[in-house]
Specification:
Chain A: Belongs to the binding-protein-dependent transport system permease family. The complex is a heterodimer of chains A (563) and B (368). Chain A is an all-alpha fold and 563 residues long. Chain A contains 23 helices and 4 strands. In chain A, strands 1-2 form a two-stranded antiparallel sheet. Chain B has 2 domains: 220 residues, P-loop containing nucleotide triphosphate hydrolases (Rossmann fold), CATH 3.40.50.300; 134 residues, RNA polymerase II/Efflux pump adaptor protein, barrel-sandwich hybrid domain (OB fold (Dihydrolipoamide Acetyltransferase, E2P)). Chain B contains 8 helices and 20 strands. Classes of the chains: A mainly alpha (563), B alpha+beta (368). The interface between A and B is medium-sized, with 20 and 30 residues. The complex binds adenosine-5'-triphosphate (ATP) and magnesium ion.
Chain lengths: 563, 368
């Protein structure tokens, strides 16, 4: 018997959390590792030596390409994101506020939909190259994206936001008096920037770089639609699986995970180092007004052009969703616009079904995320127990693992009966997708809940207990209502991300249970751009709605929990 | 209402021993204060009474009931937290009603009780306010009302006034005392402010480094400190390390270390003046207001010629630093008569009355 009630309660809360993590995070990962060590029925490192010594070098090339693309993505994103953060947070000019909020618009574009928009815009038959061709009477399109440049452009578009957001918040945390002190000591602008401002921003820049690196290593949608013959590791896993080379797929998954997880560990180590954050009083944003009229209008003009470029993909999706299928075949530009696609979406049961499926799958997964997230976060933040950092790491693993790997893990773990699936085979059933979405979004919900729970003083819970309330009553009536806004904003975000989830869906879906992202892919294959775009618009609207609701009603900047 | 008995309690956090060998008997209806410097174990003791910590050793009783391992929600104690710990998602009324709802009180009775207590803390007009819209003092009163409305057997207050400004603190002191008398409730009050402790308490326990040094009424603590820590922590005091030369029936003659050889002092041999518990180093203590400053050489014992070194003016009081017989003495005199015209450099006489001095053991180590 455990003598201390509190210890007993902690244990009671911890056991389900630990069970879920072991069953659906740890066990599937271990299964993949086991699988990668199988070759022709025996345990060897054969698959690994094949990976590195294979004659065609496909795998090595894919690994190298992944790293190469990721490094380039970091560089390009940094070159866009950091200057933007400076301009919008340090200078004041007409329209600054609007430009600053428009800068995070790429976030409302689910990755598959975003890539699709880029194809329509800048691809072989894209609107922009063709418009330029017609405008200048050229014989061929002046440029088109595809292969590595395509992937890189899409990455830059979606990932500079991470630099923009982290660096912006770091800039706003710098106490202006630090720079003023440096000027006062006789340093010039250049010196102040390189000796004071920049060192203070380094932690944010490093954190963003690691994040972008991890995300682009894991990127799947962009290579999937744009790579052409170009090989990257996340995509190779998918091809191996399709070809039935399961052991190879497992090996590739392990190698990709090792790269990602080492970056995660590096990032944690880096963030836990002493940073220079200071508690100084009276920090006020200090933006200098731009007085030089030429410079001012150059900034405004660039801002407007930038916003147009940023919003062009959204606008393209909207435009295409209004073009009925079959009316835009040989013409360069679409000519018929109406709401036919939306009408079909809600009236044709076959077209509506994927949307319904996705919503249902996401509701189930997100409900699980909500319950699990609150429980896990409460145990992690408010309870003491040995092995907390182990649980912490288990929770973060799905964030570090590329989605493709999570999909593969689930295949290896649940294509046979296990106790964790109550003796059922889950692969090929309805339940595998909600499970995948659930696992994918564990870190998101736990982290956004941690953020609010950490703000909640322990004495609030103690006050309730000393007034006579038992733990469960306290939890329901005091803790939950206080943390609910933060929890809900994280959960809603997990919901919309589930609705758009592509990489795990493409590995795990069944024909009778196709989610929206798979249907988008199918419609694209059949050149039904309009219908695909209409699905995309639904997703964009959902995400925008969630960000708006979180900001308006919960006072939470939900987009923050994405990074 | 209940008495509290803390029986040889120890609390360790890993290797840190926060409270050790603690024995306290707190009477029914008493206003009892834990006083001591930061980190001395006051909060830890209070939380063991509230049930948030369980003692490593020892027993906590309310009346005759052993409460050592009873969870906080079953103790019927009302606690006021330093940061108030009001529920931010509830109104004033809901905050106060919380404990009654937990006890499943009917809504009619609940309404009456909440209204009643809100009136007692003078917040009846604020019932429907969100707690975030209240001032610090008002939040403090909501916290008090919330703790009192459940009619707890024991009221626990952990530095409830430390977040308020000086004027509000004064007001709230009176408010707390008034409510405590109204409800006639056993109260434990934690503070590191000695003026607060002296003016409010029936009895005080003085803590340092997890050990309780003395329990007594404010005047006992002030006038008869058990050792040099208590003497030094409460009010101002002159502490002189001494050696006993000899004991006569009536008097104890002591030699001040570092003083001039002639400066032997005579202390009246009475329990009030001599704490014989400890045989280690000894110190002689005398309050600054007990030392007399005289113009001419007086009759009697313990008189020395000295010189005024500094004069500090405090309004009703004048603090004078005197050097006499090789000793530096703090003297407080009323702002009247001779002391009014004292200047640095003046030659004067001082008298240390033998019944106003006290010989106490040295426990802190720095008065040797
Ligand atoms: N939960 C804990 N874990 C470890 N050590 C603790 C814990 N709580 C208190 N301590 C230690 O026990 C000692 C006593 O702490 P306590 O909080 O009781 O002091 P206090 O008298 O209330 O001080 P203060 O006036 O600063 O509030 C301190 O050394 C403190 O560091
Ligand atoms: Mg304390």
């Amino acid at each position: 018997m455990i003598k201390n009630r509190d210890t007993r309660l902690t244990l009671l809360l911890l056991i389900p959390v630990l069970l879920v993590l072991i069953a659906y995070v740890l066990y599937p990962s271990l299964r993949t590792i086991m699988e990668s060590l199988q070759k022709e029925g025996s345990m060897t490192f054969g698959n690994y030596s094949d990976f590195f010594t294979q004659e065609s070098k496909t795998n090595l090339e894919a690994l190298w390409n992944s790293v190469y693309i990721s490094v380039l993505s970091v560089l390009v994103s940094a070159l866009i994101g950091i200057p933007l953060a400076f301009i919008f947070n340090r200078y004041d000019f007409p329209g600054r506020g609007f430009f600053a909020s428009a800068a995070i618009m790429p976030i409302v574009l689910p990755s598959l939909v975003g890539v699709m928009a880029f194809m329509f815009l800048y691809g072989e038959t894209g609107l922009i190259p063709n418009a330029i061709k017609d405008l200048f009477g050229l014989d061929e399109v002046p440029f088109k994206i595809g292969g590595i440049s395509g992937i890189l452009i899409v990455h830059a578009y979606t990932m500079y936001v991470y630099f923009y957001m982290t660096v912006s918040s770091a800039i706003n945390k710098i106490d202006p008096s630090l720079e003023e002190a440096a000027y006062n000591l006789g340093a010039n602008r250049f010196k102040v920037f390189w000796k004071v401002t920049f060192p203070l921003l380094t932690p944010a820049i490093v954190a963003a770089s690691l994040l972008v690196f991890m995300i682009s290593m894991a990127s799947f949608s962009a290579p999937f639609l744009l790579a052409g013959g170009f090989r990257v590791l996340s995509l190779q896993i998918y091809f191996s699986k399709i070809n039935g080379d399961m052991e190879v797929a497992a090996t590739q998954s392990v190698i990709l995970s090792v790269v990602s997880i080492s970056f995660l560990l590096f990032m944690r180590w880096y963030q836990n180092r002493k940073d220079y954050r200071m508690a100084s009083k009276g920090i006020g944003a200090h933006r200098s007004e731009v007085n030089n009229p030429v410079l001012k209008w150059i900034l405004v003009f660039t801002g407007i052009v930038g916003v147009i470029i940023l919003l062009l993909p959204h606008f393209t999706i909207l435009l295409l969703s209004l073009v009925p299928d079959g009316t835009w075949t040989w013409q360069t530009y679409p000519s018929v616009f109406n709401f036919e696609n939306y009408r079909l979406l809600f009236q044709d049961p076959n077209i509506f079904k994927p949307l319904k499926n996705s919503l249902l799958l996401s509701v189930i997964a997100t409900a699980g995320n909500l319950v699990f997230g609150v429980l896990a976060s409460y145990v992690l933040v408010k309870r003491k127990f040995v092995g907390k950092s182990f649980v912490d790491i288990l929770v973060m693993i799905p964030w570090a693992l590329p989605a493709t790997v999570i999909g593969m893990n689930l295949i290896f773990a649940f294509n046979e009966p296990t106790i964790f699936s109550f003796g059922n085979i889950l692969v090929g059933t309805f339940w595998i997708l909600p499970l995948a979405y659930f696992i994918r979004h564990i870190p998101l919900v736990v982290r956004s809940t941690n953020a609010v729970l950490e703000q909640l003083d322990d004495s609030i819970e103690e006050a309730s207990r000393s007034l006579g309330a038992k733990w469960f009553y306290t939890f329901r009536k005091v803790i939950l209502p206080i943390i609910m806004p933060g929890v809900l904003s994280g959960t809603l975000l997990a919901f919309v991300e589930s609705v758009g989830e592509f990489p795990t869906s493409v590995l795990l879906y069944t024909l009778s249970n196709r989610p929206i992202s798979i249907e988008i892919m199918n419609q694209l294959r059949m050149f039904n751009m309009g219908q695909a775009a209409a699905y995309g618009m639904i997703q964009i609207t959902l995400i925008a709605l969630v960000l708006f609701i979180s900001n308006k009603f919960f006072g939470v900047k939900a987009e923050k929990s994405l990074s | 209402m209940a008495s509290i008995n803390i029986d040889n309690v120890q609390k360790a956090f890993g290797k840190v021993i926060a409270v050790d060998h603690l024995n306290l008997d707190i009477k029914d209806g008493e206003f009892f204060t834990f006083l001591g410097p930061s980190g001395c174990g006051k909060t830890t003791t209070l939380r063991m009474i509230a049930g948030f910590y369980y003692p490593t050793k020892g027993v906590v009783r309310f009346g005759d009931k052993d409460m050592t391992r009873v969870p906080p929600e079953k103790r019927n104690t009302g606690m006021v937290f330093q940061n108030y710990a009001l529920f931010p998602h509830m109104t004033v009324f809901e905050n106060v009603a919380f404990g009654l709802r937990v006890r499943k009180l009917g809504s009619k009775e609940l309404n009456i009780k909440v209204k009643d207590v809100l009136q007692k803390v003078r917040l009846e007009q604020y019932a429907d306010r969100q707690v975030s819209q209240l001032s610090g003092g008002q939040q403090q009163r909501v916290a008090l009302a919330r703790a009192l409305v459940i009619e707890p057997e024991i009221l626990l207050l952990d530095e409830p006034l430390s977040n308020l400004d000086a004027k509000l603190r004064d007001e709230m002191r009176n408010e707390i005392l008034r409510l405590q008398k109204d409800y006639n409730i056993t109260t434990i009050y934690v503070t590191h402010d000695q003026a607060e402790a002296l003016s409010m308490s029936d009895r005080i326990a003085v803590f340092n480094f997890g050990v309780c040094h003395q329990v007594g009424t404010p005047s006992e603590i002030y006038n008869e400190p058990a050792n040099d820590f208590v003497a030094g922590f409460i009010g101002e005091i002159n502490l002189l390390p001494v050696k006993i030369s000899r004991i006569e029936d009536e008097n104890i003659l002591v030699q001040v270390k570092n003083g001039e050889s002639a400066s032997e002092l005579s202390v009246r041999n009475a329990p009030f003046n001599y704490n014989q518990e400890n045989k280690g180093n000894l110190a002689l203590s005398i309050r600054p207001e007990s030392i007399k400053i005289l113009e001419k050489e007086p009759e009697g014992k313990n008189t020395f010629k000295g010189m005024v070194e500094e004069v500090h003016f405090f309004g009703s009081l004048i603090n004078v630093v005197v050097r006499a017989a090789g000793l530096k003495l703090q003297v407080n005199a009323l702002n009247s008569g001779l002391s009014r015209n004292l200047q640095a450099g003046a030659e004067i006489w001082v008298e240390l009355p033998e019944e106003q001095m006290r010989i106490i053991p040295v426990v802190t180590g720095d008065a040797s």
